[in-house]
Amino acid sequence: MTDSTRPAVNKVVLAYSGGLDTSVILKWLQQEYQCEVVTFTADLGQGEELEPARAKAELMGVKPEHIFIDDLREEFVKDYVFPMMRANALYEGLYLLGTSIARPLIAKRQIEIAKMVGADAVSHGATGKGNDQVRFELGYYALAPDIRVIAPWREWDLTSRSRLIEFAESHQIPVSKDKRGEAPFSTDANLLHTSSEGKVLEDPWDEVPDYVYSRTVNPEDAPDQPETITIDFERGDGVALNGVAMSPATLLAALNDLGRKHGIGRLDLVENRFVGMKSRGMYETPGGTIYALAHRGIEQITLDRGAAHLKDELAPRYAELVYNGFWFSPEREMLQAAVNYSQEKVTGTVRLKLYKGSCNVTGRKSPHSLYSEKVVTFEDDQGAYDQRDAAGFIKLNALRLRLLGRRDR
Amino acid sequence: MTDSTRPAVNKVVLAYSGGLDTSVILKWLQQEYQCEVVTFTADLGQGEELEPARAKAELMGVKPEHIFIDDLREEFVKDYVFPMMRANALYEGLYLLGTSIARPLIAKRQIEIAKMVGADAVSHGATGKGNDQVRFELGYYALAPDIRVIAPWREWDLTSRSRLIEFAESHQIPVSKDKRGEAPFSTDANLLHTSSEGKVLEDPWDEVPDYVYSRTVNPEDAPDQPETITIDFERGDGVALNGVAMSPATLLAALNDLGRKHGIGRLDLVENRFVGMKSRGMYETPGGTIYALAHRGIEQITLDRGAAHLKDELAPRYAELVYNGFWFSPEREMLQAAVNYSQEKVTGTVRLKLYKGSCNVTGRKSPHSLYSEKVVTFEDDQGAYDQRDAAGFIKLNALRLRLLGRRDR
Amino acid sequence: MTDSTRPAVNKVVLAYSGGLDTSVILKWLQQEYQCEVVTFTADLGQGEELEPARAKAELMGVKPEHIFIDDLREEFVKDYVFPMMRANALYEGLYLLGTSIARPLIAKRQIEIAKMVGADAVSHGATGKGNDQVRFELGYYALAPDIRVIAPWREWDLTSRSRLIEFAESHQIPVSKDKRGEAPFSTDANLLHTSSEGKVLEDPWDEVPDYVYSRTVNPEDAPDQPETITIDFERGDGVALNGVAMSPATLLAALNDLGRKHGIGRLDLVENRFVGMKSRGMYETPGGTIYALAHRGIEQITLDRGAAHLKDELAPRYAELVYNGFWFSPEREMLQAAVNYSQEKVTGTVRLKLYKGSCNVTGRKSPHSLYSEKVVTFEDDQGAYDQRDAAGFIKLNALRLRLLGRRDR
Amino acid sequence: MTDSTRPAVNKVVLAYSGGLDTSVILKWLQQEYQCEVVTFTADLGQGEELEPARAKAELMGVKPEHIFIDDLREEFVKDYVFPMMRANALYEGLYLLGTSIARPLIAKRQIEIAKMVGADAVSHGATGKGNDQVRFELGYYALAPDIRVIAPWREWDLTSRSRLIEFAESHQIPVSKDKRGEAPFSTDANLLHTSSEGKVLEDPWDEVPDYVYSRTVNPEDAPDQPETITIDFERGDGVALNGVAMSPATLLAALNDLGRKHGIGRLDLVENRFVGMKSRGMYETPGGTIYALAHRGIEQITLDRGAAHLKDELAPRYAELVYNGFWFSPEREMLQAAVNYSQEKVTGTVRLKLYKGSCNVTGRKSPHSLYSEKVVTFEDDQGAYDQRDAAGFIKLNALRLRLLGRRDR
Fold first, then answer.
1. Number of structural domains in chain C
2. Binding positions for L-citrulline (chains A, B, C, D) (predicted)?
3. What CA–CA distance (Å, rounded) separates A352 from A233?
4. Residue of B nearest to A203 (CA)
5. ipTM of predicted complex
6. Is this prediction's pTM over 0.90?
7. Does residue B140 lie in a domain region?
């Protein structure tokens, strides 16, 4: 059954979730490529037990020293989510990029393991229609230009669910009951978000059924009392919730709890995939939604206008790069350098109110505030601002328009 | 008392609200400039009776034929609000530009009246610290490059509230009781929004007191049942609510009612003024908030990715231009030309859910939809998309990163 | 020999130059696809006889009514070169996009012919490493989404020059003597430019040999006397040379003659291809170089600063889109709408001096000039500009920097 | 004669050239402000003797310890010119910003001196119509937010040349003969460039008279033989000429000599000033023109496409900021951070040919080259690039255009 045209592979590191699809891939790799499979399972806060993945891998003959299960939660939030949040990145104006931002970290760790165990290939379970294949593979190639990439979904003939399950059964891969029927949609989860797409979501006119949501309560079921919280920032990153210092992942997890409780961060979106099609997704980003808004809040008083507006103009590009999988690219890193430069004084406290699906900044303060009550006041400002300056300011801003008006109007 | 250094003015058109400030200005202009004053009062949907302005103007000696009261609501929404909404403009990521977008229309109408009545000057009641003076005057100068502009707040010595009231009283200008004490904040209103700033809002850490809001109920007091609505768009502009065709201003007014009822569109913001300072404002944009989200919703299925992403990159610049008062500028008009070009097929229906301060798109459909269920489906797509194409797509997107990786990593 | 896995093709329109490569393709298509081949040969001013292409096509059995030879020179300059010049597009800061801009027109005409003759496929002779395949095919797909595209260089096994010639000889395709040896480089030519790449140019440190240039004299051999010319523009497009009205293609051809004579428009460039690699090219754009500079010259006095700077910011993106083959894309068309809007008053005359490889604007005038000697003069300007306005202008521009300085410095 | 409304000034640091204008200012400051004047004269490579400035200042009563004459040439090139060149900044597509880039350094040094000598004010000799006043003063305010700025040209009544000379003569300020008549134009010079504007240049249709040029020979008088040179770069900055290591200022000076000899770097421009008017200037940037082209040359092989294109999109904004005087602004510094990040591997050698006014890159090489002959070759690449990948690449890039085409065409 081995395809003799396939190039020889010695050892492959598979991004392995322990689920049905990647278990089938594991077996298929062993069989088709006759190669040793190394599994890598990342804890990114998806909220699933990971040890069963170890057992399953062992069952399928993966050597114990070839089973990697890593807790990457702190690295994920500190080195991926927070830098992206500094940029106020929103894809297509609305989406907080929860799936996109996790892929480069998985790719990076997979390559590290490949180097460690001397693997010559890596593999993943993303399909050929989606963005994730691009994100994984651009990461692989950027970090290990000569690595061999195996993307089973683009290669094999298991193109329907039933053939996949048939393969699993004929290879003694356990199939849980709920996988036998067609799942009504497909999901991805990590500490930042849960996404769902496909199946019952495929008609963008149909409302997302309530059972699709898993990370947030329905706003209608959220508490009737608003809850007020504070987040402290230091140099652009969150460091405390309600005055209690927390590590990045701990902070995001705590915000997730708050967001879940108040039904915050649901998004029904039709977006443009990098591969050229539109897709409809449902996203839940409870903590991230609160965090993103809070970050803007602290920037409002600590960032100069020039910096703020430049950031606003660069943000769509930054978001596009992350979405398209170009995390490990010089241009994303250049934008990050600019963004990071701006965050030096983005330090202070933001107060927010959470209530039945909505989240609003209600106050912000900072030792580095650029807001000057003395200058802005309607009262006597004692010379802090000379209103007559405005006359000249307007006159010279108007000069080109006047010359134009004389010519054209 | 006339300042002999002031250049002679024959006739001045004043943007006149009928309130205390512009009434004092009216009198002051007559006195200081010894000139004829023409008043112009615009109905932009601010929700105030305008006829009292006529009576007051007459009382101060303005000739009946020099009193202009115009209903500009349809023009405001059709030619200013809607074109701006087509651009998805948000100032500093959050603000829907409710005040900024009204100023150019007032300026334009003032200049038209000036030409009609042969006036050589125009005047407004905006202070020397704010953005509005800039917006008014850039409009004046663009449309009538040689007009004379009188900005009393930058000229006179009535620099405190008590001196203003003293002047009013000594000139028989009626002062309503509530103007005698210090107003706790200052407001601006039109069909798109109400803004408040100053006084009790001046400390950006203090929560906005509930009595500052006037256009929306507190979300906590909003109905316990969500309400679902639809908005129809044609070529980028809203044309119907719940299937009922409406004119632009009627549609926005109806959305305002819905937004008010559900507590939608409140924004507490610290923003950067064009004149160089930060200020804290509270905005209520009930209908506009719903409309803006709906517009993004219909674009999601009708705009190509290239168009959508270009729009996203241009939007911050567009918003900055509107905010800074450059509505009548070649660069805003160029951006508008690009944006308008993109809206040709932005036609269809969006469904939204309104609930206790939040507003979410729950469905969108269009006869010009670019969303293809056939292409995106997880099921067998019968050749609509060949997953193997993705391999080459990724390989060539990765090529430069691989060359880079070989050099650097 | 026919590959049975190839989908059936009935009739294919081939972009046919009459040269060796496309003649081999013609034959190969007939043989491999067993289909009728329609040839299309465009006169884009490449300066070659086109009738021989007809004879060759007939010789290979193409029906006379299936041989299309069209003079597209005027359309090329008027609808492609000029609009691009309005945008001041320069790829990577230097390249005038001579090859890129011709491809969409060829693609468009090919599709028109395909529709006319009822063809179900199109084909071209671009290789799998270059940009041209992308430009052709994006054009095809945009204009005829369901057309079948055959790119022989990506399909066949004629992967070396000798195999190509072998195929030609075994199929009675005439091979001119100079094609038998390895050509030292490959070229493309049209009315805007000639490009050369490959072979002797492949090491970017080696100087381009003089024999590679064909469109311009070596500047050292150019006349010792400078020549002064004028170009008249109307609404952004050139309309006359030295006061003599000319059609677009005639004007560009006349400028080419001038550029050739004075050695103008040579460019040695290492550029980034869309497919991910760097390549080294040599370009000669004699007339286009003069024209582009002249266009900037007339814009200098007729474009407002706001319009000019927005154009400068959009130009790299526009150039990238054209280079990458996205001429028929909404985003290029949106940018064009913005650019075109700006050109309404770009009318007037530019004077240039041509001398031994260099070209400089030495004067410009316009009935719509925005340059005001009265305002700018060092002499007494009689109140056209009040220098005291500058104080307020600076003060308010400085305000945010002062607030920042108080905090940070 | 002292204006009693002027605020008291104790000590002022004047940017002093030793010329007529700033000598008059020196005296006027002493007289009008009754304050101590400190003079600061910078050697930025303008090519003038600076010691006469000392003598003149002493003559007018400036204390020896209050006379500062600093050689800032190395700092100028290293910390201002080179960082700007890394960004490939060109104002309005053509101008290398020679005047703009010198102003922030002068401002910075003036503020340093003010702090050293305890001055409470600074002053400069720029007029109220130009950009330089803005550049100086934005620099002052950014670095010393509470400094007092005296701009005599915006204050005094010496508004004509004859009144200025009259003032000079009545105060024993020596007036050189050539200053008595009207100078035919005004100039600024430093190591990067010489600019001229005004008077005989005021009509943008008139050709710049030959006597206006001072830094370059007329190309027609340049050597008949081309000269070939090499420049070495390290991390984005020039470090050697023809293999000889040089400091930044030495390198630029040597390039100036070469540029002068070959007539390189003349530019006749109508530009848009920040204060709102158009002006016509003549610039000579001999060494800078060569350097800028060489920098692009080395970037061509060492910068990745993503980095290069992002730089191209940011460059117009960067140039605008420098031109407008916002060197010391967060947004310029953010852009610089992005640019600097990109320059890490911009190391190598560029070869250029100089000939009668033109300068062209003829070769470039680098130990960090990203150019891969193996990938790009027309010959057999032995698998470095799989041409079939291009099919998928094009197919997915085309997908959205096809969906669009199906809808619209």
1. 2
2. 95, 100, 131, 135, 186, 195, 271, 283
3. 13
4. B373
5. 0.96
6. yes
7. yes
